[in-house]
């Protein structure tokens, strides 16, 4: 069906004060990148084989999986075609960003492809932890899809605490083989994507035993299904873990071993090694394993979180311009609901957060690149800082995003509850990031540990690393008079974070001095420690946003809108944690109204450009996947169109009437 | 499968300091009520016809609906059997509470029965708005299930703002018929439960036209499907609205009219009437319609919200006693995760909120009964107060519950993401309450309007109604010294609410005095007005909890635990809105640590009795529906058992391997 653009949206677009294409180019990283992305999207999305006659939500769990496999095979065949005329497409990052659940991927397999872990973890793990020979043998086969692999770490009874894993891998020098075993039910591998029915290889993390001694967790490559019959290999029990809140075509699986033998050479031995005779050779540096974890967390924030926030903001903004409801003034007719202040306050923070977290993650990405180049030179000094920052940024951004996506959904009323709005799927995907790649509370406590140590260093006169350098001077800022400019608000965030860390430090040390053990003292204060880590993260995010505004080269018009969004987030976060700011920053009780006023002002300014701004995210209707967020604004037409795709609507009378309802009604006459 | 009770849970139960059965009896309203409930649950849940071989999540949308109809017919046939030997079961409230989605109902049709609206709205609407003749004609047929009805109010383009509805109903005196029409796409009725394929009658809310004049929204009974063939009646377009975040077997539908004629007598005429000649007779009191809305909102809070919070708390508490993870002290082994302070702070507030909102709703229920008995005498004075209180309580409790359920889910890590944990379903059900029966922001602004007026009355020396009487004296409390007893904390909540209302009042009046129109001034402050309404609600909830503690007759042991839960909520809410308390109450900056300490202390105390307490909610495993929350604590066994029910796990190799995956892999060799 072809529609004309909704008149309300047209008007909004005419009002926009900046060049939308400039914003798109900025977010893509340049004009060339935008063109390249659009070409790529066209190439894939236009393929009719990806079109669903019936939306996947209506199918059974099994059918959804089968469609996902079908489409994944077409998709990754097509990726090879694409790579032939596009060199940049041959690296993992490109595949990751384009085809696995964020952009093009989400237009094709909304609920996730069972091949994801193959690209996100199986191949990178071999590259990061395999010897050169191992890489040579495995990476080519994996990258050309002769084999499909997954990464099995988490167990039914063990998650974030990796040392607690139970699967054993015992070396037998007589046969030069390892023997994998699952000693308990809780040791079953659980969650690995694609493990259920899609993969024939897995990297398995297991407790390594050799010469009667345990050396902790190491990675092993295990064949789990026969290449010809796809039957599970002998001694291997395997299946999917069942249906979930979302990501139901990812095919998460479980895996158990009954004394399964693999060659010695299947241990990934770039770091630690087991020699033929069973001698264990320790890794030169076991901290290197952090590199991959940090990488994944930065990517989660920069690409996934930022993208989900943009999508939620686009849908809610466009819908709120088309939807009219109630009255602002008696008799004045129903206004666009985006004209309500409360509605603006639900949606605009999502726009701002999408940018704020993107900028913060980009900054972290720069640090990551600096640190990894130093790692190669054997310098590990900055690794703890990077680790600490990536932990709290992942924790806070994923939690914020899940809340923001929910608020945007609720801002669309009942229609946001429909699957065709795409909010349920967006929420399921966003909320999953709160749990995977490290439980958020555990991550915050890891950051807190680093902050505690840094505060100690600051007190001891040691030099501080960049992201915690504010611990040296946050107190001196507290006497300044409050104004609502960005510099002052930015400094208030450091004051709050600094004070919270300081408080934790003193309180916990007090307890220790009173004779309580360090662990007990720490465990008594985990709630406030997580809050200190959160405050540290927020000051980092605000700081990155402010620095970005200072350094980017953009037109004055666009820069103005970005500045309003930055101010909005400052006000929003200050008012949300007002108690902290009143206690620990130069904000005084009678300054609060100035923050509230600035917030109101920002909402008004952003209102003018809201549609233009979300248009600038340049997310195609197919990728957005929402009846409420379509570019042309024909929301109600799409809702009824989508309803009529329901298999239940193909017959005027459902069979259950004849089978159950009619006999029931008649029996009551 | 039979399991022994998990040893960790056994130990927890032995520690419990109070009599669990006493708590259950208290929550049920008495010993007799507990026995009755258990008997009823047994009668229904033991019926093998309700057992699912394959969990519904694995079926297609259509199959799920068909199962829901099948089970609903069995269920309501069985309800009649039950009624034969239980008199109390013949009223709506009993059916509502037992069979529609909360207790027994959720064990049988987890995702909701398509008959719900028939009981919740169709029958009550006829009783509330039909004449005696109409009641006589329709209620019997409806209650004995000779017909199945729904209630069609919301339209595709119109929700909470009822005056904006577009469906017309025009009287034709020549034929003594009304003519129903849907003039636009946005006027399509949308959302009504059971409307899609399950009902043959609907109460339709439409703009009444007679003698060329529009008299606003009125209710009409319309036959929508033929009793014999179940085909839509002539001129009626009908279908389901499609798949949603949850409640997918409710069969929400759409409905459009092409000049559909119904007899004049099908207008429900208890209040307004249209005479044969088309003369319109106005309702004596059009405020009476509020009664039903208030009733439904109180029920949402008292039964639905309280029940979902209990379920979430039970699941997370039991699982956290079984689950062991990480280390509190090096080498001390993995502790139960409920021993982590951060974990306690995620779960215990849900326990406390379940009670807090139940007590508040019970108090409102008492007021409701008082008011409705006065209504019958023509006294409408207390109606606005009741309306205001029900609005904010519905808004705040549903929002809090959705957050608390989510936090409990996240507290169970990845396993909470599994459908077999029941968290996804619980969340979908809870979050729906945020939107249905009035959008929460709109509701809060209705409360704000009442508070604004009440503050004006207070200033004018008029007498205040009970729930806002604190507006007379909140300022005098501010000079008192802070202590963390319940009285002081309770009073702080009134101070905050009072001050926020006062601020709104003065700021808005200032704007009006400066020449801005009343509507514009109001619209400039809707964000802070909603926050004032929220503060009013929280002071009411805390106040109700404190009064309950003072008045209930319970053992000292149980009362002690209830008191700890009340203190926990006070601390939790104070720390969440600390800025407000620092600005507006007698809490000073150096009192904050006392609140934090009390919070820590409450968590520790509640920890001892947590399992006992959630056991006291006495929710059977079948009603809880969670692999993580089972009474016997054999969590991991249930997880693998549930995974193996997946149809994908019935074959070792899925067909998609032969069809797609194998050709794909081979082509890459």
From TrEMBL, chains A, B:
Residues 290-451 form the Acyl-CoA oxidase C-alpha1 domain. Its main location: other. Residues 486-666 form the Acyl-CoA oxidase C-terminal domain. InterPro entries: ACOX_C_alpha1 (IPR055060), Acyl-CoA_ox_N (IPR029320), Acyl-CoA_Oxase/DH_mid-dom (IPR006091), Acyl-CoA_Oxase/DH_mid-dom_sf (IPR046373), Acyl-CoA_oxidase (IPR012258), Acyl-CoA_oxidase_C (IPR002655), AcylCo_DH-like_C (IPR036250), AcylCoA_DH/ox_N_sf (IPR037069). Pathway: Lipid metabolism; peroxisomal fatty acid beta-oxidation. GO terms for biological process: fatty acid beta-oxidation using acyl-CoA oxidase; lipid homeostasis. The keyword Manganese does not apply. This is Acyl-coenzyme A oxidase.
